Amino acid sequence: MVVHSALVVGLAWATIGSQGASSAPENLLAQFEEPRPAELLVPLEHAEQSSALATAGGSGGDGVGTGPHGRGVAALDGQMSVELETPGAGPGDGPGAVELSRADLREVRGGDEASFFGIRAAGTRFVFIVDMSGSMNEGGRFRRAIAELKQSLRGLFTSQEYYIFFFSDLTVPMPAHDLLPATNDNLLATFRWMKYVEPAGHTFPLAAVTRAHELKPDAIFLLSDGAFGPEVLDFVNQNLPSGAIPIHTIALENRSGEPMMRAISTLTRGTFRFVR
């Protein structure tokens, strides 16, 4: 398993390195003046996309039905886990929602934390890793995740930076080579890019986690509604000393991935949450 994990990680880093050769855009907005979906959603291929993924522990994300949606609760600190209920995403919060005006976004101020599904993380640099496997279509899970992600990004200050990965069999990185300041222009462009992301495939977050580690954020948020193999835990154990980069994990409406996600958060001194 360790050898296999090393091979998969090696493939991921090789692909990442080839993509990082081009220069990073000054900001994301220029790429979206005339959106071209085929170019915006270039996957970060981390391994052979069929039998290799199946043997590596990728899951079909066979989730259970949704639970009741209630009101969110305050975040907890430290290595803790709770069951969290949040409002369901409204029809205007999905991938095809109308863009918010810039007046709705944060003004220029300082900030030192971020929040995702109620988990608060300290810092100024954050990476969000969000499941886009086929099971995220069930019960509006993906729409709910997108709505919460938008809310988290709106809560950032312009002195803070962010990056987003969506993952299934493939990993789709935000079209920028580094974290971006949470300016109004960048956030609006990011919201437009997210419209083209559609759930499909299995659950394999390894490439996204390895790339997130390379970006050296203050914290990583990892959301999934399905189970996945031990490759991520192996990578974290080998490359992230305890507390170096906390990985906060969210199991969305399905507990099948809870043991692995809880272990990842415990190892990195992050927080685990199950969200109904």
End-to-end CA span = 32 Å
Strands, count: 10
- Describe the largest sheet: 8 strands, mixed
Low-confidence stretches: 1-38, 45-104
Helix- and strand-based class?
A: alpha/beta
- Provide the residue-averaged pLDDT: 73
Number of helices: 8
Give me the strand/helix succession: HHHEEEEHEEEHHEHEHE
Strand fraction equals 15-25%
Helix content: 25-40%
Topology:
Blueprint: H1 2-19, H2 37-40, H3 51-55, E1 81-84, E2 113-116, E3 119-122, E4 125-131, H4 141-154, E5 161-167, E6 171-173, E7 180-181, H5 184-194, H6 206-214, E8 219-224, H7 231-239, E9 247-252, H8 258-268, E10 272-275
Parallel strand pairs: 1-10, 4-5, 4-8, 8-9, 9-10
Antiparallel strand pairs: 2-3, 5-6, 5-7
How would you characterize this protein structure?
It is a single chain. The protein contains 8 helices and 10 strands. It is of the alpha/beta class and 276 residues long. Strands 1, 4, 5, 6, 7, 8, 9 and 10 form an 8-stranded mixed sheet that branches. It has a two-stranded antiparallel sheet with strand order 2-3. Helix 1 packs across helix 6 and helix 7 runs parallel beside helix 8. The relative contact order is 0.22. The N terminus is likely disordered.
Short recap of the structure:
By secondary structure, the protein is an alpha/beta fold. It has helices at residues 2-19, 37-40, 51-55, 141-154, 184-194, 206-214, 231-239, 258-268; strands spanning 81-84, 113-116, 119-122, 125-131, 161-167, 171-173, 180-181, 219-224, 247-252, 272-275. The strands form 2 sheets. Strands 1, 4, 5, 6, 7, 8, 9 and 10 form an 8-stranded mixed sheet that branches. A two-stranded antiparallel sheet has the order 2-3.
